[in-house]
Design goal:
Oligomer: single chain
Largest sheet: none
Distance between the termini: 40 Å
Amino acid sequence: MLATFFVAIIFGLGLFLLNFSNASSYLSDNPQACVNCHIMQPQYITWTHSSHRETANCNDCHVPHNNVLNKYFFKAKDGLYHASVYTVRAEPEVIRARPPSIEVIQNNCIRCHQDQVTDAKTAAFISEHQANRTDRTCWECHRDVPHGRVRSLSAVGAQIEPIREYAPEDLSVIPEWLEKSMDDTQTKNEK
């Protein structure tokens, strides 16, 4: 009886956490899921004003596309890592892709831009294009694609004005459920 009670408590807490964190949103390809974590707002806003906005969402670049199982396994693994870091408030000051993510992002750049990467005509006007196209990441040259010049949390003052410039007034990058939760927490703290 006691074991059943504890299993029920753990199961109930698990369901509550899944519902509270809006976990089902992470199964989709909706970029709004990425801004469930407020730290990604600058990346989201700059992406909304990039050339990639019309053709690629976050998952198009940041998860593997070789098969469905690998896609969702990678999303789950990466998501659990991000949730853990966010939960213990250990976000790095400068967000950088980890080695498995670097490989996935690079493969996706090549997957979408294979014609440009392998086009022999390109080699004629870009010096050492043949040698350089495979031994370094695409973003070593294409630094501002697709996230602009977002660099660190310490540069928030420098980031705010360009982000406000890009963000339409009616754009809410904080999902409604998270904003309500934050308002409720703030109200409780004020009392």
